[in-house]
Design a protein that fits this description.
Length: 289
């Protein structure tokens, strides 16, 4: 059964400012997760000059059943080493002082793409030493050396998304591992104590409130500082269907649970995504430190 989209989730049409940014993104050959993941906030964020850069191209080596990003066999697909320069050029043009960077997962690469993250961070630090950079990283197959390459480049925030509750991992993220994702956040804090850590959970995939609470507790147990909770939206009939459109009131319940468990900053709502108002969440976290 196809569920009708609630009114609070209907997307806005791009306004002129958003259309101009889309043109600039295309001209520079930039990839954004905002576009590739069909983010419902794209028009609103682009209108304000806010975006999340996606490194390592636009094709992923994994087949998570919730994700709109293209997936295929990536063996021998070269890494675009000019990508960090282009990202920095877009940051310069937009005058950003808070930058969010993610990537596709590249299990075919020996370093999982960690080197491109590090190079981009180093260039951004040179461009603007005062800029804060949030990295939303893959799990690097649990490779601690790859994680350390990224952390040595000194991001401000290290984010890694849990995405869903433990019991749904085989269905939702068959090539990922719940415990490994928690370890990425735990290791990040141990290796680089000065960084803040962040994660994100989708709802509407069939999870229970009890399972959400346990996932939040698991994140707090590894020292996660910030969390975002948002509604899953199925990108196509080939992806997992939405089991439930969660009412806004329940997102408020999840927010209270998260704060009660000790998170320093929480964004919870139907349209919330992992990078939703990232700078605002970071600043709230600092205020609660």
């Amino acid at each position: 059964m196809i569920m009708r989209m609630p009114t609070w989730l209907r997307q806005e049409l791009p306004q002129e400012g958003a259309r101009r940014l889309i043109v600039r993104i295309r001209e520079l050959g930039i990839t954004t997760v905002c576009q590739k993941a069909h983010c419902p906030n794209l028009s609103h964020c682009f209108q304000q000059g806010q975006l999340t850069f996606m490194l390592l191209g636009d094709t992923c080596s994994r087949s998570c059943r919730f994700c709109a990003v293209d997936r295929t066999c990536l063996a021998n697909l070269p890494v675009d080493k000019d990508e960090p320069r282009r990202v920095c050029e877009m940051v310069r043009q937009l005058g950003l002082d808070y930058v969010v960077i993610t990537s596709v997962t590249r299990d075919d690469l020996a370093d999982g793409g960690a080197g491109i993250f590090a190079e981009t961070l180093k260039r951004l630090h040179l461009l603007n030493p005062d800029a804060r950079v949030e990295v939303l990283i893959p799990d690097f197959g649990g490779n601690l050396d790859c994680l350390k390459v990224v952390l040595d480049a000194q991001p401000t925030v290290v984010a890694h998304n849990l995405e869903t509750v433990r019991g749904l991992y085989p269905e939702v993220r068959p090539q990922a591992d719940y415990s490994r994702s928690l370890k990425i956040l735990e290791w990040s804090r141990r290796i680089y104590p000065n960084c803040l850590t962040k994660s994100s959970i989708m709802v509407g995939l069939g999870e229970t409130q009890r399972q959400i609470r346990q996932a939040l507790l698991d994140l707090r147990d590894v020292g996660c500082d910030m969390v975002t909770i948002g509604q899953y939206l199925s990108p196509s009939p080939a992806h997992l269907p939405v089991k439930e459109f969660v009412l806004p009131d329940r997102f408020e319940v999840y927010k209270r649970i998260a704060y009660d468990l000790g998170f320093k900053a929480v964004a919870s709502g139907p349209r919330v995504r992992s990078s939703y108002y990232a700078q605002r969440l970071y600043e709230e976290c600092l205020c609660r430190m």
